[in-house]
What we know:
Low-confidence stretches: none
Largest sheet: none
Structural class: mainly alpha
Radius of gyration: 15 Å
Distance between the termini: 41 Å
Amino acid sequence: MPTPDGISDEDWDEITRDAYVLVNSDDSDRVRIFLIEALLESLECLTKKYGRKASIIATIAEFSLMSDSPNLHESEALFKEAYELACETSDDLNKCFISHSLAELYDDKLNNPDLARYWVGVLGENLRNHPEDFLEESYEELAAKLVTK
Length: 149
């Protein structure tokens, strides 16, 4: 089954496999950087093939954060673009994942509890439209954590 925004299984499986290798890698920093760069190149190739799609743009933003010197504001802009694309196409699944990523970005990296709370609220609304067990648990944890900030 293709992604909600139309990327074929064959193409997305390659990204998923490469991401799995990266996330589960215990290799040196140099190998990790190589894996990130290879994954980002594959995502750029998908962008050329499919255009700017929420799944692709959000994944670029996510893995850019793992780079040696991440540009947090660039990732923020990419996540927001991906969220807008998901809204335009009524892609409820990507809206859930991207609002979750934005909430975590504002909480963990940009230290902006107000925007983190905003995106947690958006995530809650999105989960009402498209329940996802993994994200529901994370939503509750993030919401509870942000009450104290």
